[in-house]
Amino acid sequence: MVEELINSHEGGTTPRRIADSYVQALAELDPLTAVYLGLNPDDDRLPDLSPAGDREIAELGRRTLARLDAAEAAGASQDEAERRCARLLRERLTAELAVHEAGENLRAVRNLGSPVHNVREVFTLMATATAEDWELVGRRLARVPVALAQYRETLEEGVARGLLSGPRQVTTVVGQFGEWLDPATPGGWFGEFVQAAPEEQRATLTGIAVAAADALATLRDWLRDVYGPAAAAAPDTVGRERYARWVRYWTGSDLDLDEAYGWAWQQFHELAAQMRAEAEKVRPGSTPMQAMKWLETDGPSIKGEEAAREYLQGLMDQAIADLQGTHFDLAEPVTRVESRLAPAGSAAAPYYTAPSLDFTRPGRTWLPTLGREAFPVWDLVSTWYHEGVPGHHLQLAQWNYVADRLSTYQVSLGGVSANLEGWALYAERLMDELGYLTDPGHRLGYLNAQMMRALRVIVDIGMHVGLDFPADSPYKPGEPVLPDDAREFFGQYCGLPAEFLDSELVRYLGLPGQAIGYKLGERAWLRGREAAKAAHEARGEAFDLKAWHMAALSQGSLGLDDLVAELTAL
C-alpha cells in the first residue's frame, strides 16, 4: 500500500514537492491527519491503530527519506527554500523513525495525546452544519470500536515485548475514560456530542454512540484489569537514553540536558524574586503563593462557562485589533479565531487547535472547565495570549496563509513542538513588554506561567534523567528528583490548583521531553530576536519589530538546531 501511495503522489523530485507528497500520502494512511489539515473531506475512516498501521507509516517515512536522498544527490536542494525544507523533512522523519524503532508507540498510554484521545478529538474538529455532515460523523463514529480494538492490539504487542507505560498513566487514563463514559447520558461523551445533530438523525446517531461507548468501556476495563497489573512494576520515568530520543523528537535538537537543567534553576531564582515583588502589589505582606491563592478564591472571576468563553473571545478579538498594523500585519483569514469549551474528561491544561489549510475551520482555543462554575481571570489573560493571540494562533494561522510559498509539510506536519511552544511563551512576554500585563494580578499570572515553564524544565529533566536538586535549591538540596517530590516542589512554587498540577505531573511522565520546549524554545526566540536587532544596528539600520515578526512567522517550521540562526538572519 505504501508503494502505491508514493507512486500516486510523486509530485516532482524537489524537496518541497517530496515533502508535500508525503503529506498527501500520510493523510490517506492516517485520516485523522487529514481532518486536522482539512484534506479529504469525504473520507469517513479512522486510522489503523494496530501495529501494522504503525509499520505502514514508518515505511512511508523511510521511502520518503530515500526519495529525498536521491533528490539531494541530484542537486535539487541547492535553492535556499529547498535546502530549508530538505533539512526539516530529514530531521523530522529521522526523529519520528527513531521513536518508532524503539517501540515507543507500543506503549502509548498517556493522559494527553494518545491515539484514543486523538480519535475523540477528531469529532470536535469535523463539520456539523448539515445533515450530510452528520451522516459523515455517524459513519466515522461507527468505526470507533474497530479503532479501539486495534489500539488494544498494539498495547498487547507492547506487553509481549516488555514495553509498557508507567502505572500513573494507566490509572489516570482509566479515570479519564470513566469521565467520558458518564452514565447520565446514553453513549457517554459520544452520546452527548451527537445530541447537536438534527432531530431526525439523533436516534440513529445515539445508537452508534452507545456502541462506541461500549467499546471504550471494554478498553477501559482491559486497561484496568489486565494492562494495569502488567504495568504495575514499570517505571514512571524513562531514563537518559529514552529521554534524549524524545527530546530530539520534541525540540529538533540534541540538547545539552545538564546545561539546560542548570539554566532552568537560574531562571527559577530570578522569577521567584520577581514574583515576590509582584505579590506585594497584589496583597501587601503576602508571599507569592498567598497572593495567588487570594486571587484564585477572592480575586476577579467570570461566573459561568459561557461567560468565560465569551470573555476569552473578547480578549483575543481585542488583541488582534490592537496589534494589527502596529506589531503584526495580518491577512484577513488569520484574524479569525474562536474560543471554545473543551470536552469533559480533557487534561486540565487549555489548548489550541489550528485552522484547516483552507481556513474553512478556524483556529480554536479550548478551555477545560473541570466542573467549575467560576473562572478566576488572574491567570487566564496571559494563558490566552499564549494559546490564542499573539501566541499559537498567529503562528499557525500565518503558516497556513503562506503555505503556497513554502510547502504544506513545513507549515503542518513538520511542526516542532519547542518552536511552537517557544513562540507562544515569547508571545506572553511580548504582551508584557507592550504593557498589557500592568494589572498586578494579571502580571503575577504571567510570572507564574513563566515559573511553571521553568519548573517544567527542572522536574522533567530531573525526574527522567535522574538528577538531584542542586545545592542552592530551597527544596531538598542534594536529594534526587523523584516524581512525588517533584510534585510537592512544583506545588510550593506554582500557584495553580492542585488538580491541575496533578494532571501536569502525569503529563510530564507520559510525554517525556515535551514540557521543556516552552522555556527552551522561548530562549531560542529571544536569542534570535536580540541577534537580529544587533545585526541591524551594526549595519546602521533601524530594527523593525513588526517586519521581523512577520518574517519570523512566515518561515514555517524549524527545529531548535536551526531556529536561532534563521531568526538572526532576518
UniProtKB/TrEMBL annotation:
InterPro entries: DUF885. This is DUF885 domain-containing protein. The lineage of its organism: Bacteria, Bacillati, Actinomycetota, Actinomycetes, Kitasatosporales. PANTHER family: DUF885 DOMAIN-CONTAINING PROTEIN, GLR0591 PROTEIN. It holds the Pfam family DUF885.
